[in-house]
Amino acid sequence: MVCAAPASAQNVSATRPDSIAAVLKARGLPSELKQGDGNPYIRSAYDDMPFLIALMNCDDAKANCATVQFYFGFNDRKGFSLDKLNEWNAKKRFVRAYRDDDNDPVLVMDVDTDKGGIPQAVFNENLSVWLDQMQQYRRFVTE
User: Which of 49, 65, 70, 123 is 20–30 Å from 114 (CA)?
Assistant: First the structure.
């Protein structure tokens, strides 16, 4: 008798960056796990747009992370209008835009993968939303 693997085995979790990398690779996107001074992150890109997936809410050992934050920013649009960013945020639901500490416009989206992770299909849908919003944000900031 063959038993099916438990559903949680197919879940995507910030605690298991390899599960995130697998979804990215299945979509044909690059995936490179990095460990900086802070929390670990995954470097990727889509449509000539580099982005990061920061592993957040980690324990003191920078492991066992609970959430991810998708991050995309510009470094050549310093001082982008706050009124325009407010316009963006008023119309968008799942992502938010702001100016970072260097006065650059950035876009972020948070996904909670705590308590055992989320199904691959759900993470994949979040990734689709992110990729679409990133393209829209690039057009918005560069027009």
Answer: 49
